[in-house]
Amino acid sequence: MKYKIFNYITVFFSVTVLTTSCVDNEDLLQVDPNVETAGSFWKTDEDAVAGINAVYSSLITDGTYMRSTPLLLDARSDDARTNSPWGSMYNAGRFNSNVADASIYGWAYETYYQGIYRANQVLANVPNIAMTNAALKNRILGQAYFLRGLYLFHAVNMFKNVPVPRNIAVKYPQKTEAEGWAQVIADFTAAAELLPASYASVSGLDSGEAGRATKGAALGYLGKAYLFTKDFDKAKATFKQVIDLGVYSLVSNYRDNFTTANENNSESLFEVQMSREAGGVALGWGGIPASNWGKTSARAITYAPRGFGWTDVQPSHALFNEFHDEKTQSGDLDPRLDATIFYNKPGGMKLYGQDFATYYAKSPADLNDIFCRKYQNSDGEFESEMDWRSGINERLLRYADILLMYAETLNETGDTPGAYGYIQMVRNRVGLPNLATTKPGMSQAQMREQIGHERFLEFPLEGHRFDDIRRWGWLQDATKLAWLRSRDAEFNSYTAGREFYPIPQLEMDNNPGTIQNDSY
Q: Which residue intervals define the domain RagB/SusD in the entry (predicted)?
């Protein structure tokens, strides 16, 4: 579905002073009949659906998936680079975000907690609604747990020691990273118990609405949380549950995961719904949704090739080169290269209806450069991204990720031979040779390296690579860090502790006693 964005609920009391007689205090507080209040709102099935839709709406503001969250995740990885003239963007990729200027990372932090607050409103109020559809109530609560878990997943993953709100309050104390992950796991566990495998056969106001959180999405993220906390046994069991649902399969065309052509496809466990047709034309820069907001993304213009957008993010040459390491069974280059990167390809390559070599002929630097193709509206239907309004859904979790994470847990729990088959499922889609034939009998350590390579080529510019680098401990490994620096000069400015972004100064000011992350 393309989400309906509901104006968030606000409470407004007007106080009328009556001077003609004695009055009780409660008589002084009157509800404006023209304004919806918390007391009058949470009453019906429709109210509950409107409330959960407000939680989803925090996914499409600038702090989250309109722009900032993909940027914050991609900028620090060795599959991407940024030479943005905007200091906040430039420094994000160089582990040098400014504590005094919370642009981008601070917007993300703020929006994660906006989403958590809205989820907590649903969890606090919906149980008290005498809903006519009990199954719908469970699905709404399941979605609230899922979305709270998702927002908190990002907050803990990017900012480490953060508040963990579970109810409505004025202030929330800072918690440890372990406490944060424990709550993420609890939320995804609760969500998985309440959510359906799909909405195709449910009855109620959400019937048939693709794009809402499902059991598979909750289990997928639960497995991911276990993986990130190195609980490999639980991660393995959870990923196997996703596989055993029998709901998901890889799409035949890899590129279909990054265009509008095949959104909410069989490979998608969860994606943020974007649309050029829904709502207004203004971008959701933050705060409470306005009536003129659209449901579009600014990712495309931010990552677009030179002349078609801002080119703030580009693929790394290490990524480009690694795509050449192994040919397909037919002797061709890995087709994921052309789905991911624009370059001066022998024989020609089109972008936005233009021939690459012809368009950049008068600019040798650009002619020999490489640019992002993934998530670009570049197949000829648009001349550029300059209207800032991309309608391409952001795919947060794909089945290919489940397969490769499951392979990783098999390897980490001593079943290295078992990992081969699940890796090969992903390789088969793009025609790569049988890994069991080309690299038989790998040790656990060798398989770890192979999984790193497989994930690097399957998920570039999707916000996964730096998460992998961090959770694998490569930044604390002198040999690996030197290798990363040889591939991406941005790692030269990394110092210990900078794998996390700083806690925004506003949070430090509003919550006295909050401790800043190391090295900031």
A: 267-520
Q: Is the pTM of this model over 0.70?
A: yes
162 closest CA partner among 142, 145, 182: 182
Characterise 334 by phi-psi region: left (phi > 0), alpha (psi -120 to 50), beta (else).
Answer: beta
pLDDT for the residue numbered 28: 44
Report the pLDDT value the prediction gives residue 36, as an integer from 0 to 100: 57
Name the stretches of the chain with pLDDT < 70.
1-38
Extract the tokens encoding 80.
Answer: 């991407």
What pLDDT was estimated at residue 293?
Answer: 85
199-206's contacts with Cβ under 8 Å and 24+ in sequence apart are 202/135, 202/136, 202/139, 203/133, 203/135, 204/45, 204/133, 204/135, 204/136, 204/139, 205/45, 205/46, 205/49, 205/133, 205/136, 206/49, 206/136, 206/139
Q: What is the DSSP string of 289-307?
A: PPTTBEE-BSHHHHHPPBT
* C-alpha pair distances (Å), 283 with each of 290, 300, 376, 403: 10, 13, 18, 35
The number of C-alpha atoms within 13 Å of 497 and in the hemisphere containing its C-beta is 10
Quote the pLDDT of residue 23: 40
Nearest in space to 396 (alpha carbons), one of 171, 154, 156: 154
Structure tokens at 272: 């943020």
